[in-house]
Amino acid sequence: MCIRINGSAIQEVAPGLIPHTNEHVVDGSSLVAIPGLINTHHHFFQSLTRCLPASQNSGLFEWLTLHYPIWKHFDEKMFRASFRLAIAELILSGCSTSCDHMYLFPSEVQSDLIGLQVECAEELGLRFAALRGSMTMGRSMGGLPPDDIVEKDGDVLRHCETSVRAFHDSRQYSMRQVHLAPCTPFNVSEALMRDTASLARHLGVRMHTHLAETTDETAFCMSRYGKRPLALMQEWGWLGEDVWFAHGVHFNAQEVALLAATQTGVAHCPSSNCRLGSGKASIRSMLEAGVPVGLAVDGCASNDSSHMLGELRQTLLLHRTQEDRAFFTARRILDLATLGSARLLGRSDIGRLQPGMAADIALFDSNELGYAGSAADPIAALIFCAPARPHTVIVDGNIIVQARELLTGDESQIAANARLQAARLTKCASL
Predict the structure, then answer these.
(1) Whole-angstrom Cα distance, residue 135 to residue 147?
(2) If you average pLDDT over residues 211-220, what whole number do you get?
């Protein structure tokens, strides 16, 4: 099978295509082509705080309280290094599109961090959706984070609108978009949640937040508001086709039915949920009910990587421990990470290898050692076998990985700078 690309889009998919004069040809005779993977939840900045000893055995709330005092020391150099590291790692796992839930905005950092994220994504060639996150409810107001890292509601809303107007591109094959994403019910005010919903719908962008990740979160919402997390979202205007939640580990059957009825989506983050001991989201019941579901790596401090292909394997293995093996097939998992994820992001132009879709393609070498003996089903091998580095990655018609090497950035320099900035952060935080 051959794939012809014209500009940003796939023009033809057919056997035996003859190259046109001066047409660049990628020899795919030993390569397996899949749509570029799509990541629906991340926190790029966390890539500088992987595997911290103090939090390796913590649940979410303790894990957060241990990280907040460290994260407040981030400066622009640290942010840039973390963004580039996470993006490069995503690309080198076959990911062509990612969003990032950016909720850390230290008052000492004067740079536009959403703009910086967009810049880093453009430099490295990733199709990107910036999720302008926020924390506005500190400990003095009953929230979880310390007061010195939260923002004011009004400042958040103003920057949300500024970011959308500056960077959101809703056109077909857009390489950058912006959506609004207050962090969680335990660190954002009710007023901001309601106002964000109104602003997002006024601006025509989507809405995202963490929800139903842990039993601690449910207990917090019951204690403070007298309602479960999803009931709060319903009350605050946070249900609908333009909304997706990260995690959804602790939805009950009635809540799954409500998600399906309102077509509210869920980003499944299996590695993070396992790492923090949060539980296992019941994505089979969600899928059978008709809930839109996509996949995500979550932040690097709770995964602790940005390997999107690895997340597909984790999904497959986790759900086969207690559920029907015939339901969680390799191809169903691949669909979740492509078409399912595209749906959460509101994109109908990515996630398939067919004419008219964006030319986002990940190609893996079936001759690699780790795939030897898997010729009977090379697509399934990508997910059943150990995750490999793609041979070629094409985004928006541009080759950004070739022969397993990142073409848009110096991988060694990206890693070295990340190590340098992580060391600076460690020193600033007196770890």
Answers:
(1) 10
(2) 98
Per-residue confidence (pLDDT) for residue 184, from 0 to 100: 97
Question: CA triplet 362, 92, 339: central angle to 5 degrees?
Answer: 45
pLDDT tens per residue, range 279-318 = 999 999 999 999 999 999 999 999 999 999 999 999 999 9
Q: What is the distance between the alpha carbons of residues 339 and 333, in angstroms, rounded to a whole number?
A: 10
Would the pLDDT of 186 be above 80? yes
Provide the pLDDT for residue 39: 99
Residue 51 burial (10 A CB sphere; 0-12, 13-18, 19+): exposed
Rounded to whole angstroms, how far apart are CA atoms 395 and 360? Answer: 4
DSSP run (H or E) holding 211: strand 207-211
What is the Cα–Cα distance from 350 to 356, expressed in whole angstroms?
9
pLDDT above 80: residue 431: no
* Class of the CATH-defined domain 2-34+354-411: mainly beta
13 burial (CB, 10 Å; 0-12 / 13-18 / 19+) is middle
CB-based contacts of 335, cutoff 8 Å, min separation 6:
none
Name the residue type at position 101: H
pLDDT at residue 12 tops 90: yes
What whole-number distance in Å separates Cα of residue 197 and Cα of residue 200? Answer: 5
Q: What is the DSSP letter of 71?
A: H
DSSP state of 336: I
Q: Could you tell me the pLDDT band of residue 430, with boundaries at 50, 70 and 90?
A: confident
Distance separating alpha carbons of residues 119 and 142, to the nearest angstrom: 36
CA–CA distance from 42 to each of 101, 158, 272, 378 (Å)? 6, 23, 11, 28
Cβ(394)–Cβ(5) below 8 Å: yes
DSSP secondary-structure letter at 20? P
Please give the CATH superfamily to which domain 37-343 belongs: Metal-dependent hydrolases (3.20.20.140)
Query: Where in the chain are all domains bearing CATH 3.20.20.140?
Result: 37-343
CB 280 within 8 A of CB 248: no
Mean pLDDT of 16-31: 88
Residue 75: phi and psi, rounded to 5, are: -120, 180
What is the rounded CA–CA span in Å between residue 316 and residue 307? 15
Q: What is the pLDDT of residues 128-163, one digit of tens each?
A: 999 999 999 999 999 999 999 999 999 999 999 999
Strands in 218-299 per DSSP E: 243-247, 265-268, 293-295
Residues of the chain with CATH 2.30.40.10: 2-34+354-411
- Specify which residues 55 forms β-bridges with: none
Number of H helices, E strands in the chain: 15, 15
